[in-house]
C-alpha cells in the first residue's frame, strides 16, 4: 500500500551536455542577470572559477574563490560582504558542494538567484538544503530560495576531478539515494529518482574512478548526482544525521559519508525490506550493504573513521547527539545502537 505523502518541488532548469559550460553567459542572461558573483573554492576550483568569470565577461561582477567545506560562519559573512561590495544581482557557483554551499549561504541572506555548475557528485545543486558551521556544530535548514534556479552539468568540466574526490563524492551521492529509499517522507517520485540515481552510480562510479577520462561514465555520474540530490530533498534519517554531527566536528564531508554508508545500510536494511529490494535491483546484487562495503574497499579513499581524524573518545558525544534526534525509522537509533555502529566504522 502506498503511504500518504506530500510532494513539493519548485521548478528548476537543468541543462546537461558536454560543452554546456559554454552556455553559461546565455543562462545568466536568460534569468535577466547582468552582474553575477562567481563563487568557487581556492586552488583547482579557482581555475574553473576564473574560466567561468572570463566567459561571462561584463556579466560577471567578480570571482570570489574562498569557499570552504561545511561553510564556517566567518566564510559565509565574507561571501556576503563580497556580494554586497560587487553589487551582485546573482551568484554563479562553480565546483563542488563547498562552492554551492557558500552561494546558498549568501542567497539565504540576500535572496539572490543561483546558477550552479557542479563538478563533483555531492548533489547540493538539486536541494533546498543549506548548512553552516560554528563551534563544532553544523546547522542545516531548508529554504526554497537557496535552490539554484538553473543547473548546468558539463561532464567535460569534471574530467580533471581526482579519482579520490570522485570516489568519495560519488559515495556521498549514493548515500543520498540509499537514505531516500527508507526516509519516512519518501514519495513515489523521490523513490524513483533514488533508484535510478543508484543504478547509474553503481554502474558508472567504478568506471570513473578507474579512468577519469571516461566521458560517458562522467556524464552518467553527473546525472546520477542530480537524481540523488532531488531524492534527498524528501528528507533525511540516520545516515545524514550521523554525517552531519561528524561534519560539525570537522571531519571531511564526502569521506565521512563514504565510510559510514555500508555500516548504516547494514543496520537499517534489516528493518527496511522494500528499500533493500529496490537497492538490490538497482545495484544488481543480493546483499546491497555488502556491495557498498566492497565498493568502498575498492576505492582509493580512507576506509575508517580513525583514518580521517575522528577521535574515538568523541563516540559518546556523537551517540548522545543522535539519541536526542529521536531517529526511529526505519529503525530506532538510540545512543547504544549508534555507539556500536560508530565503533564498527572507527
Ligand atoms: P568540495 O566542494 O569541497 O570539493 C572537493 C575538492 O574538489 C575541492 O578541493 C575542490 O576544489 C575540488 N574540485 C571540485 N571540482 C573539481 C574539478 N572539476 N576538478 C578538480 N578539482 C575539483 O566537496 P564536495 O564533496 O563536492 O562538497 C562537500 C560540501 O557540500 C560539504 O560542505 C557538504 O556539507 C555540502 N553538501 C551539501 C548538500 C546539500 O544538499 N546542501 C549535499 C551534499 C553536500
What distinguishing features does this structure have?
346 residues, alpha/beta, six-stranded parallel beta sheet, 51% helix, globular, binds nicotinamide-adenine-dinucleotide
Report on this structure.
- With 346 residues, the protein is of the alpha/beta class.
- It folds into 2 domains: 13-158, Rossmann fold (3-Layer(aba) Sandwich); 163-345, Up-down Bundle (Dehydroquinate synthase-like, alpha domain), CATH 1.20.1090.10.
- Helix content is 51%, strand content 12%.
- It is built from 13 helices and 8 strands.
- The protein has helices spanning 24-30, 44-56, 73-85, 97-110, 163-180, 188-210, 215-232, 238-248, 253-269, 273-283, 288-298, 315-324, 335-345; strands at residues 13-16, 36-39, 60-64, 90-95, 114-118, 129-134, 137-142, 150-153.
- The strands form 2 sheets. It has a 6-stranded parallel sheet, with helices on both faces. Strands 6-7 form a two-stranded antiparallel sheet.
- Helix 4 (97-110) links the parallel strand 4 and strand 5.
- The longest helix has 23 residues, at 188-210.
- Nicotinamide-adenine-dinucleotide (NAD) is lined by residues 41, 43-45, 48, 69-70, 95-99, 101, 119-120, 122-124, 127, 129-131, 157-158, 160-161, 165, 169, 172, 253-254.
- The site of nicotinamide-adenine-dinucleotide has 31 residues, from helix 2, helix 4, strand 6, helix 5 and helix 9.
Produce the secondary structure layout.
Blueprint: E1 13-16, H1 24-30, E2 36-39, H2 44-56, E3 60-64, H3 73-85, E4 90-95, H4 97-110, E5 114-118, E6 129-134, E7 137-142, E8 150-153, H5 163-180, H6 188-210, H7 215-232, H8 238-248, H9 253-269, H10 273-283, H11 288-298, H12 315-324, H13 335-345
Parallel strand pairs: 1-8, 2-3, 2-4, 4-5, 5-8
Antiparallel strand pairs: 6-7
Amino acid at each position: 500500500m502506498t503511504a500518504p505523502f506530500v510532494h513539493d518541488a519548485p521548478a528548476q532548469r537543468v541543462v546537461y551536455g558536454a560543452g554546456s559550460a559554454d552556455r553559461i553567459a546565455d543562462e545568466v542572461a536568460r534569468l535577466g542577470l547582468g552582474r553575477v558573483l562567481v563563487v568557487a573554492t581556492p586552488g583547482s576550483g579557482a581555475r574553473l572559477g576564473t574560466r567561468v568569470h572570463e566567459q561571462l565577461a561584463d556579466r560577471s561582477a567578480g570571482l570570489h574563490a574562498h569557499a570552504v567545506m561545511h561553510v564556517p560562519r566567518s566564510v559565509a559573512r565574507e561571501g556576503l560582504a563580497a556580494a554586497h561590495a560587487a553589487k551582485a544581482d546573482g551568484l554563479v557557483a562553480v565546483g563542488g558542494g563547498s562552492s554551492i554551499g557558500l552561494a546558498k549561504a549568501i542567497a539565504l541572506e540576500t535572496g539572490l538567484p543561483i546558477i550552479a555548475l557542479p563538478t563533483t557528485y555531492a548533489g547540493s545543486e538539486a536541494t533546498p538544503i543549506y548548512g553552516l558551521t560554528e563551534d563544532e556544530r553544523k546547522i542545516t535548514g531548508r529554504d526554497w530560495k537557496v535552490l539554484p534556479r538553473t543547473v548546468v552539468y558539463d561532464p567535460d568540466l569534471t574530467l580533471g576531478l581526482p579519482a579520490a574526490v570522485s570516489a568519495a563524492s560519488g559515495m556521498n551521492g549514493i548515500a543520498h539515494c540509499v537514505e531516500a529509499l527508507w526516509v519516512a517522507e519518501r514519495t513515489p517520485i523521490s523513490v524513483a529518482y533514488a533508484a535510478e540515481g543508484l543504478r547509474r552510480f553503481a554502474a558508472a562510479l567504478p568506471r570513473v574512478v578507474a579512468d577519469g577520462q571516461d566521458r560517458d561514465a562522467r556524464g552518467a555520474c553527473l546525472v546520477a548526482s542530480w537524481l540523488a540530490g532531488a531524492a534527498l530533498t524528501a528528507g533525511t534519517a540516520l545516515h545524514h544525521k550521523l554525517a552531519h554531527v561528524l561534519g560539525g566536528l570537522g571531519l571531511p564531508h564526502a569521506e565521512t559519508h563514504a565510510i559510514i554508508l555500508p555500516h548504516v545500510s547494514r543496520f537499517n536494511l534489516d528493518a527496511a525490506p522494500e528499500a533493500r529490494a529496490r537497492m538490490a535491483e538497482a545495484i544488481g546484487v543480493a546483499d546491497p550493504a555488502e556491495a557498498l562495503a566492497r565498493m568502498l574497499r575498492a576505492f582509493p579513499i580512507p576506509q575508517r573513521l580513525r583514518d580521517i581524524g575522528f577521535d574515538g573518545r568523541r563516540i559518546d558525544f556523537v551517540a548522545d547527539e543522535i539519541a536526542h534526534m529521536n531517529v526511529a525509522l526505519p529503525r530506532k537509533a538510540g545512543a547504544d545502537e549508534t555507539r556500536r555502529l560508530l565503533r564498527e566504522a572507527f
